[in-house]
What does this fold into?
Amino acid sequence: MKKLIFALTGLTAFIVVHALAEEEEAPLAPLEAGSVSQEDGLANWAKIHEVFSHPRCANCHVDDSGIPMWSGPSYGKTRPHGMFISGGETRIGIEFVQCGTCHGRENSPTPHGPPGNEVWLLAPAEMQWFDKSSQEICEQIKDPERNGGRTILEVAEHVSHDPLVHWGWDPGPGREAAPYSAAETTDSILKWQAAGAPCPSAE
Amino acid sequence: MNETGNHMQLKVNGKEHEVEVEEDMPLLWVLRDELGITGPKYGCGITACGACTVHIDGMAIRSCSMPVGDVFGEVTTIEGLGTPDALHAVQAAWIEHQVAQCGYCQSGQIMAAAAFLEVNPDPDDEAIDRALSANLCRCGTYVRVREAVKTAAAKLRGV
It folds into this structure.
């Protein structure tokens, strides 16, 4: 258990450093409120939703079972990560097998090899949006209780600066990248915010 | 690990080694071909089978896919886990339950189990399965693996 605590302490230290690294980037400036129409705001949300619901993003925004998802040309329909994997409560698998046991610092260059990044972990369980509707995710992104304690501007900064988020656009061989780019998605979030962060009707 | 150009220092099983290799060479290649440590096995080469599992500072790592330049601490292989005179509890349990059949995957299984029990000393069946399902055994020794892990856990807890 001491090692578990040590590992968690290490993770916490990493996240702090990670957060500081994010802070080193130039801060984003919000657009003037009302400078974007409601219609354009909804159009921008649709682009944001395309990104957030894309497998490269949503497959790790899973519930408290901690089971990441797999999807893509090699897997057919989206299904749970093979090998009976769970990220557990720690979201990095310390209780079972750590994500870092297989997921290294870089994408494997070999087809079907594991993707990688400087850090590899599931989003917190409260940020689960896998399988949720556009309207549900939209409301969630505005709720600090369910978006990692962020303002909308901080969500934009997260998308703009976070290396693991950026992995979604550089996922390694054999995986479809998320649509648009980090910069375009950040721009869409700022426009959506300026429009009053409108959400689509329930489907 | 310290490195200067392609000259690297690597601590394995308590012993310092100096190797002249490219930093993107997988750790498994360095262990087997450069240092002659052949306990870790090559299976799939893409972290999907677990035969190459070693520890780095106690954490289970698939050595087939970790570039040696990314090694962040001391490496322990099956050769360094215990000794013939003082087996690690997991090794002893493996013998007690006669887990191995062909044996090829077993060093990886044992290393994964040893790392797992350090953080989860009293696991239930689901936790054992979650921890070790990524270590494949084509002989199908999984039932004995599970029992051996329980025996080792009890021994490590002093039960």
